[in-house]
Amino acid sequence: MKTYKQITLTIVPRNYELISGLMWNLPIEGINETDSSLIIYYDASNRISIGDFKKVLNEAIRNNLIESYDISESDVENKNWNEEYEKNVRVIEVTERIVIKPSFKEYNPRKDQIVITIDPKMSFGTGEHQTTRLMIEMTEKYVTPGAKILDVGTGTGVLAIAAVKLGAAKAVGVDNDEWCHLNGNENISLNGVQDKVKIILGEITDIAEDQFDIVLANINKNILMEIADEIKKKVKKTGLAILSGLLNADENDIINRYTSVGFRPVDKKSMGEWLSIVYRLDR
Description:
There is one protein chain. This protein is α/β, with parallel strands linked by helices. The chain folds into two domains: 4-85, ACT domain (Alpha-Beta Plaits), CATH 3.30.70.260; 124-281, Rossmann fold. The chain has nine helices and 14 strands. Strands 10-9-8-11-12-14-13 form a seven-stranded mixed β-sheet, sandwiched between helices. Strand 13 (263-271) and strand 14 (274-281) form a beta hairpin. The chain is globular. 41% of the residues are buried.
């Protein structure tokens, strides 16, 4: 029987979605997010230790992604990881209109509801995290029929899928993570939107198209600061950029950066410590 180790991790600020994504670069078996911590499981026979997790976290501190962390390790009994995963993924009514569900759970929607099927696997964007909820709320508010959408850092593809289900004519998702590319395409198929959504492996600079009505980007502050000019190149005149992955404390820095390249903030919403801002391009 395999022996498993459990890493219990708390970080400041609670940027668990981002740190979870970094941890999947290690040979781990699963991650669960609780109200107070991240619980990470790995096979003890793998040649990793708590030191490898600390290296990832210390690098995150150097890159100003987190401020501090507390970490501990313990032994755990063998588990059925698929069963654990399915037990912890739930149906989420993100808004009155939009519901996100895994393929293995049933949901009877009301006539006016849009159901999006997402099996996240090693990507993120199930509607659990506040930034995903904020982005979906803003997408629902601002997507218009026939719109052309770019989703930067698409992850599971949930925002691109939501956009076309809300009436967008086309959505392009881009992510530099191979797991996200694979998972995003799987979720496109689950939702039957292959004719309207395309997922590309790469960076925003790899997208040849421009003149998008809306660019969606649910990424961390540092990357959003870096790609402000690239986002501007992709948005058509008077088009929108909807951003999240931001803490409330990031607001002034992000507004200064995006107004400097020609964007004007037109809307914002907070959820807990997280923030989403909508910008319109004036040029």
